[in-house]
UniProtKB/TrEMBL annotation:
Protein name: peptidylprolyl isomerase
Its EC number(s): 5.2.1.8
GO MF, any single term: peptidyl-prolyl cis-trans isomerase activity
Keyword presence, Repeat: no
Signal peptide: 1-23
Gene Ontology CC annotation, any one: endoplasmic reticulum
Length: 142
């Protein structure tokens, strides 16, 4: 088996596992676009740089966007610095990939919300694009 075929096969299995975990948690992941070369995947421990736009599912109101600041948000995947829906939804992405994440309140800001911006028990929708991955040994950018 060629190495490229093996990488494709392993990637497909990984994406199936991510989809199963996401569906059990209530997170919905819609893949919008994915580059042809998707050999480097975001994994726990990587520092990822993500452009995003977040809106409330209830009324479509945008409450935050990295595009307005013209700077992607960097964070270490698996560190707990972002909401759980992001941790699960960004895992397995490759640089240049775009997804829409529909995140239930249990994986976002919970019962209380984040007043006054996010009401209690709010489902959030994020359009995300992975711009860069910094891992311990390599760097991949879009």
């Amino acid at each position: 088996m060629k190495l490229s075929n093996l990488i494709t096969f392993i990637s497909a299995i990984f994406f199936c596992l991510v989809a199963i975990i996401a569906s059990e948690s209530g997170l919905k992941i819609d893949n919008i676009s994915k580059p042809d070369d998707c050999s480097v995947l975001a994994k726990n421990g990587d520092t990822v740089h993500v452009h995003y736009s977040g809106k409330l599912e209830s009324n479509g109101k945008v409450f935050d966007s990295s595009y307005k600041r013209n700077t992607p948000l960097p964070f270490k995947l698996g560190s707990g610095r972002v909401i759980k829906g992001w941790e699960q939804g960004i895992l397995g992405m490759c640089v240049g990939e775009e997804r829409t994440l529909t995140i239930p309140h249990e994986l976002a800001y919970g019962e209380r919300g984040f007043p006054p911006i996010i009401p209690p028990k709010s489902t959030l929708i994020f359009d995300v694009k992975l711009m860069k991955i910094d891992s311990g040994s390599s760097k991949d950018e879009f």
